[in-house]
Amino acid sequence: MYFNRPPGCPDLRHAVDKFLTRRLFIAITPPQVILDSLGEFQLQLQSLNLPVDWEPREKLHITLNFLGRVADDDFTPVIRNLAAFARSRTGLSLTPMFLETLYQRHDNSLIYIGFSGDLKQLRQMQKSLSLSLSQLSFPQPRRFLPHLTIGRLKRTDPTTTKKYMDLIRTREFIPLPAFTVDSLALYQSFLSRAGSHYQRLRTFTLGDSPSTL
After folding, report:
1. Which residue ranges form the domains of the chain, and what is each CATH number?
2. d(CA 49, CA 164)
3. How far apart are CA 184 and CA 33, in angstroms?
4. What pTM was computed for the model?
5. Distance CA 122, CA 113 (A)
6. Residue 86 burial (CB count, 10 A)
7. Which residues pair with 26 in a beta bridge?
8. What values do phi and psi take at 171, rounded to 5?
9. Among positive and negative, which fits the CA dihedral 17, 23, 25, 29?
10. What is the C-alpha to C-alpha distance for residues 63 and 16, in angstroms, rounded to an integer?
């Protein structure tokens, strides 16, 4: 049943949309063969029996831009912006090259894979994407580190953390084959007491090809 809105009464649908939000980020998803190889390397590191939360293979990605909580009525402009941006870009090549750690004093420290390849082109693409998104009033990071997080070392005292990180870096990472980045993905992140999980909402093919769900 529908009712006509009385004159002068505000339309609450728009107000409700402002409170309905999605936690979004934009990322590069490596091909499955790369994800499988990284998963096998994670298993090697797990033999160290360190206090690490390992990222499941389905969550492995290279974050380009984190949008934060996006209101539902801002979702369509984001989609249009990303679709137009992707059409204006071309593909690039990345090689998973080395294992590294990043100490974080007030949070879990990162265990990640670094890359070689078209890094200059990747940084230019990320910077251009940030500028494009800032026009929609989304604040963007000033510094971009191309990386893929494979695990998070649980926070402890600095001395113990450094010992764990040094031990992790003793493990040899054999560079994986180069892969082509030909699309960007928009993800929604869901948080719970059990952790987080991601849902891919859209895939935006670089170049003139149509984007997909």
Report:
1. 22-205 (3.90.1140.10)
2. 10
3. 18
4. 0.84
5. 16
6. 22
7. 65, 186
8. -80, 130
9. negative
10. 30
Among candidate residues 12, 169, 185, 154, the one with its CA nearest the CA of residue 86: 185
Tokens of 114: 């670094």
Q: Are 24 and 78 in contact (CB under 8 A)?
A: yes
Helix, strand and coil content of the chain, in percent to the nearest 5, comes to: 35, 35, 35
For residue 47 the two structure tokens come to 């033999």
What amino acid occupies position 135? Q
Would you give per-residue pLDDT tens digits along the chain (213 residues)? 434 455 555 544 444 344 578 889 999 999 999 999 999 999 999 999 999 999 999 999 999 998 888 888 889 999 999 999 999 999 999 999 999 999 998 899 999 999 999 999 999 999 999 888 887 777 666 789 999 999 999 999 999 999 999 999 999 999 999 999 999 999 998 877 777 789 999 999 998 554 555
SS3 state of residue 153? strand
